[in-house]
Amino acid sequence: MKTTLTVVLASVLSNAAFGQIGINTAVPIASLDIVAKRNDGSTAEGVLPPRLSGDEIRAGDPQYTSSHAGTIIYATAAVGVSSGKTANITAAGLYYFDGKIWQRMLQGDPRRLNAQSAGDIKNSMQPSDHNGWYLLNGRSVSSLPSSAQTSAAGLGFTVSLPDAADRVLKTRNGAELLGSEGGNNKMVITRSNLPDINLIGVVSGTAESAGAHTHTSEEGGFLLGGTDVGNNGSGHYQGNSDSASWGGVGLMGNTATSGAHIHSLSGIATIPTGGMGVSMDNRSAYMVVNTFIYLGE
Fold first, then answer.
1. Are 7 and 22 in contact, with CB atoms under 8 Å apart?
2. How would you list the strands of the sheet with 290-294, edge to edge?
3. What sign results for the dihedral spanned by CA atoms 14, 18, 20, 26?
4. Could you report how far apart the first and last alpha carbons of the chain are, in Å?
5. Where are the domains of the chain?
6. pLDDT in tens for each of the 297 residues of the chain?
């Protein structure tokens, strides 16, 4: 162990004059060049940053200023009671200090330290703007910080941000403008929305019996002729509606009574739907979140 330390120190001192430091190499090619000691898997290789709990990092808040931007620490646990600088330390992981606040590394694409680019969209339970993410609520671009205004203008939003309230995201189709809005959460079905088919109802059956009754004619009457009872050839009908009266000449308005009877019926019926034209909710089952756009800090 003593020999190894001597070799490493000798390597560091020998390269200090050139402004470059090498670990496990005598010819560093950068300010700090670390070469794996072995590549056969017999030793653990890599760089271990300082490891502190979230509370221990918070205790050092006064020590971190804008001059410490770029500092990297591994938080072993989330901070218990956060401060302004440690608000983002919500879980174990790598964090870097941006000069104002500790930021979580590798939030998105693991190939990049900072996964956000201007125009990125995310859904979140966060209630308001945070860490360069701005709520898409239709606000005026002029109300944003100057750097965010520049990012918004670069995305084509020069007057206002899109309003994502009560909307879902849709992939662009053809010449559609990014950030444009369309569709409706409510819909009303009209006749033109129905399939082009004939709805036919066939009705048949018998009318309900109403006992003995007569039938009237809608216009005029029934012309009766003959020389039997009630007129004696005078040409004037003087009988009554019983069967003995048929055969005279005259006019009557009712048919003769034929006792209780029923009537058959058939035909095509028009049946109303009874609808009221009330609009329907056009949304699937959902969970409420906020939608944010990244415009930088």
1. no
2. 121-124, 290-294, 133-135
3. negative
4. 47
5. 2-34, 116-208+284-297
6. 444 444 444 444 445 555 788 888 888 888 888 898 888 889 899 889 999 999 999 999 999 999 999 999 999 998 988 898 998 888 888 999 999 999 988 655 444 445 577 889 999 999 999 988 999 999 999 999 988 898 899 899 999 999 999 888 888 888 888 888 887 878 888 878 878 877 666 777 666 665 666 666 555 555 555 444 444 445 444 444 444 444 444 555 566 565 666 677 777 767 677 777 788 887 778 888 999 999 987
Quote the CA–CA distance of 142 and 158 in Å, as a whole number: 8
Largest CA distance in the chain: 156
Number of H helices, E strands in the chain: 3, 15
- E strand or H helix that includes residue 152: helix 146-154
SS3 223: strand
